[in-house]
Amino acid sequence: LFAVLKFLQKTWRDIRFGLQFPSPPFHWIYGNMHLTEGYLGEKYLSTTRDMVEKHPRAHAFWVASFIPAVMLTHPAPIKQLLKASTIKSKMDYDSMRPWLGNS
After folding, report:
1. pLDDT, position 4
2. Has this prediction a pTM greater than 0.90?
3. Number of neighbouring beta carbons within 10 Å of residue 16
4. Helix/strand/coil (H/E/C) assignment for every residue in the chain
5. Contact present, 55 and 22 (Cβ < 8 Å)
């Protein structure tokens, strides 16, 4: 029971976080995947290009109705995120280190 409550709490937190960002209209079950015909190919890239033109700083792409993928597409919000005093996961930061430096 505790594990289910923990999962629901995390899922609700992720949904609230994703709703703070603009996104194309999403389906209650499969999110924005209907816009890409279920594949992350050329259709996904054109959808992403359209979103970046409409919202040049950040947007959300819903992989399912409860899994937002937040895309930061401008240096300003990325810089703010990296300057935040929160603890940065070493694993997440290591993959970006070649582009961002050791800050």
Report:
1. 94
2. no
3. 10
4. CHHHHHHHHHHHHHHHHHCCCCCCCCECCCECHHHCCCCCCHHHHHHHHHHHHHCCCEEEEEEECCEEEEEECCHHHHHHHHHCCCCCCHHHHHHHHHHHCCC
5. yes
